[in-house]
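@channel anyone free to eyeball this complex?
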Amino acid sequence: MSAVDSAPDDVRAIEAAAAPTRFARGWHCLGLSEKYRDGKPHSVRAFGQKLVVFQAGDGTLSVLDAYCRHMGGDLSQGTVKGDEVACPFHDWRWGGDGRCKQIPYSKRVPLRARTASWPTLDQDGMLFVWNDPEGSPPPADVVIPRIEGATSDEWTDWLWYETTIDANCREVVDNVVDMAHFFYVHYSFPTFFKNVFEGHTATQHMRATGRPDARPQEQGDKPKTTGSNSLAAYHGPSFMIDDLTYHYDTGDQQSVLINCHYPVDANRFVLQYGIIVRRSPSMTGSAADELAAGMAQFIKLGFEQDIQIWQNKARIDNPLLCEEDGPVYQLRRWYEQFYVDVADVKPEMTDRFEFELDTTRPVEAWQKEVEANLARKAAAAPAEGRPV
Amino acid sequence: MRVDNRLTDGVPMRPLACDRCAAQVLVRKSSRQQTSVQWNSGATALCAELEGAEPAFEGCGSLRDTIREATLRGTIELADGGGGGETGGPGRQLM
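replying in thread with the prediction:
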């Protein structure tokens, strides 16, 4: 039981402003670049707009506003011709730089024939788009770090999933600091938890122990997880790289998990997650692929539970925190830097902040809960789950 | 910007200078195990351990020692009073 400590007996009101209609400045991943390399224009709804993604003949992936500046045709319904995307309405040809290059039935292209284009980054098998409401190009020091395993034969290929969620994307970012939800929503058991925010990165250091009452894969002769070590960091507002090592009774298993999203509009976002697993002498070829697939399924299950929470919860600007919660307010202060003009980014949004959680009490409470769950399971199914 | 209810209703962040480099930071401890550290650009520039640190670097060891000393001296108070209810007994090991 917790000590109850409340002086004024007033009802606590949930406060929440409407979700911002401005979209974060930063690199946003639109998924695996391979998906856009089929020679066709693709339609993507993001940042409150409709975009067209297409691959030019020279291999470059480009992102433009989907609507043709001539008569408003939808370029994502058009065709790729050479290095340009052609509008299905009157065949106006648009280059990746946003300029109209040719109108086959006209002697010349009119003045001002320029549409909105987004800077892109094609890196480690993923396509990124730079969003900036002020229209500036990405600064040289705002980068997505390279992922060594993504281009190495020693690792599996990306397994990638995406799903659209009816909520503002702040909900997924809040997870960075939310230690306790890893136990209740993801069947994990954190034993160490620390956040560091600095510049445009927000990091979560987490060590967790096995959860024998909840891990479905811990059956039969399969390797048993004894815990995990995770270093997860947001690089900008939407792209998280998680260096995740699972400790098995047979040895360590390295993986990289991507958790990223892009906003569709103020109250909807596309959540994506990808995973690669390192092959090792004991984890070769298909065994590594199988493990990656198993982990992806487990992660998918976790996100599905998050989604259930997000789509039913209230947006809350004044969360009421106990001392065993993470730094939600300081995370949101960091996150705010992406929603204001560059000139209005304050030092407090980017200055280094560290928060190490005291997991003593949570660990005590959760051990009891795990033991109770195991006892209940054993009582309910006396013939199952016991060594023969 | 909104303020953490734990700072307004409990113990605030307190200034503390690192014993090694004199970097001035703000510190709060809710218990012996929990620590919050607010840096500013002046402090991060002074800290030798932070310079060129890898992403896996969890924090400056010298500052951690300074905070431990300050907690023992009582310069940094614990929000739970050091007793920590059933969990944080006074005889418990630090860090």
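from a first look: The mean pLDDT of chain B is 87.
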